[in-house]
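Before relying on records like the one below, remember that each one covers exactly one chain. Contacts with other chains, cofactors or solvent are not represented anywhere in the record.
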Amino acid sequence: MSLRIEWKKIQPQGVSFVYYNGEFTGDLRGRAEMLNPGIRIRNVTRRDSGTYRCEISDKSEGHPRLQEAIITLTVLVAPATPVCDVPSSAMTGTVVQLSCKETEGSPPSEYQWYKNGVALLEKTGTGSARTPNITYTMNKKSGTLLFNTVTKNDTGEYFCEASNGIGLSQRCSVKRMQVDDLNVRGIIAAVVFVALVMALCGLGVFYAQKKGYFAKESSSQKKTNYQSTSEKDFKHTKSFVI
């Protein structure tokens, strides 16, 4: 009857009390109870996962003794709907990466990509043992699907599925990626059009200079400035005479 029981939670930022001086503390207050000397936690959440330490000491006089036990609690959580990033369009020969991620699952989820409703194979082996006709690299841990050199054959509808063995797997909505060839003719036509516009502008400026339009404008501006100056001088003289 002289024993003292304490529970603590060991976290990266330090050690905090869970059960101290005969009562629970923190977010376990009101949803945990003692079971001499264990703990029963109701409505567990992912935040309850962690390492707990039970300390039992003898409060009697003389030589107090201390015993402790370490318990690791892992709360299993089914994955949430992942967020997928799929580009709507891409040019052939470029590097394209698709990403898939969800952060609620515990343990962390693994990811599987699908194209047109068919699961994509994971590239395995090296050399002749490598799976043929695979132009991508799929990382099931990080959820990335990487095309080092995307082709028109990679056009299709993609979605990703997250699973961790707890509950049902979750998938994101289907997104289409369209891969097209680089329109070289269109680029050349645009460059030629811009060059023609610049040439016409240059010819226009040259023609205007040859006809003396800029010189006439400068002469007219000087005349206006001269008249303004003469009027100011006249007013100044008139004021002086008065």
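The chain is about 25% helix and 35% strand.
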